[in-house]
Task: inverse folding
């Protein structure tokens, strides 16, 4: 089986490795080349990754022809790197492959090309809501990876390894998939599992519950006292557990989650600041601006001006 990886600029090296290394290891375990791969880029040039390394490319997208599967890997600055010519070329070349997929932010690219219309799909958890709103013709679900007919969407680096182990198991059996997983000191997780990492066993389960509530309520935060009540603790006891485990208070941690979410939207999308304030639980742009400046040393508008963010796909 030959897989072509189309890696877009500002993708993560971890996602590339998660897609390729399980296949390399499977070949090693089998003693023959059951899997082959080639890396291509939009223009055939080496691809600059988020870590600063340039990934060599075998050529432009046309060089993917002849592979059984085409998997797109994308990360940041989609509006800049997923150009109209690339979308056009993807739409034209996709029927030549038995399987077409995308990792991390790449489902956005496939969606823009119309390649996910009428399919179930997933994307990185930060983009789930936006993808569903922008493409109602796609059934967006929060799974680790989704296989729907000849489309596969994968939410990030670790789920990419999960999918490759699934592929190896389907083609060569559970024993080989287990051997490959053991080589990397990991185990495969099902595609239908949630994207979030398993709870840290070192944390008090009530802290874990409180964290999950905060993460699920970015747009509608609840008072720390309400969080404490929901996990059957007094506010004082919950604060003590948070200080012991995280070195901060529940209220401060919840605020930081919201500000980090606002920062991601500022850098990765073109949403208006008023919308970002609403989606991160602030009563107004000015309220967000004051908290943002206190946390990051500059107001939201200044950060966006520095980055010159283009509208989201």
Result:
């Amino acid at each position: 089986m030959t897989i072509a990886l189309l890696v877009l600029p500002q993708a993560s090296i971890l996602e590339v490795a998660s897609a390729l290394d399980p296949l390399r290891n499977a070949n090693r375990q089998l003693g023959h080349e059951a899997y082959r791969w080639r890396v291509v880029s939009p223009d055939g040039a080496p691809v600059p990754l988020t870590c600063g390394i340039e990934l060599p490319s075998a050529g432009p997208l046309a060089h993917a022809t002849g592979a059984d599967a085409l998997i797109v890997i994308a990360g940041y600055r989609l509006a800049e790197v997923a150009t109209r010519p690339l979308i056009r070329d993807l739409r034209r070349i996709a029927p030549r492959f038995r399987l077409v997929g995308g990792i991390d932010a790449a489902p956005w690219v496939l969606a823009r090309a119309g390649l996910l219309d009428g399919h179930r799909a997933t994307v990185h958890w930060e983009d789930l809501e936006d993808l569903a709103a922008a493409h109602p013709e796609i059934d967006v679900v929060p799974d680790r990876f989704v296989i729907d007919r000849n489309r596969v969407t994968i939410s990030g680096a670790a789920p990419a390894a999960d999918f490759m182990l699934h592929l190896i198991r389907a083609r060569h059996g559970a024993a080989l998939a287990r051997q490959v997983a053991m080589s990397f000191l990991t185990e495969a997780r099902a595609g239908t599992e949630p994207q979030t990492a398993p709870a840290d066993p070192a944390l008090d389960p009530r802290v874990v519950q409180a964290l999950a509530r905060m993460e699920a309520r970015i747009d509608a935060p609840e008072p720390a006292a309400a969080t404490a009540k929901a996990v059957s603790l007094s506010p004082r006891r919950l604060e003590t557990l948070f200080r012991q485990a995280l070195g901060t208070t529940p209220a401060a941690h919840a605020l930081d989650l919201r500000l980090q979410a606002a920062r991601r939207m500022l850098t990765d999308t073109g949403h208006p600041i008023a919308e970002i304030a609403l989606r991160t639980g602030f009563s107004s742009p000015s309220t967000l601006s004051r908290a943002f400046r206190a946390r990051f040393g500059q107001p939201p508008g200044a950060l966006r001006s520095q980055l010159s963010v283009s509208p989201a796909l």
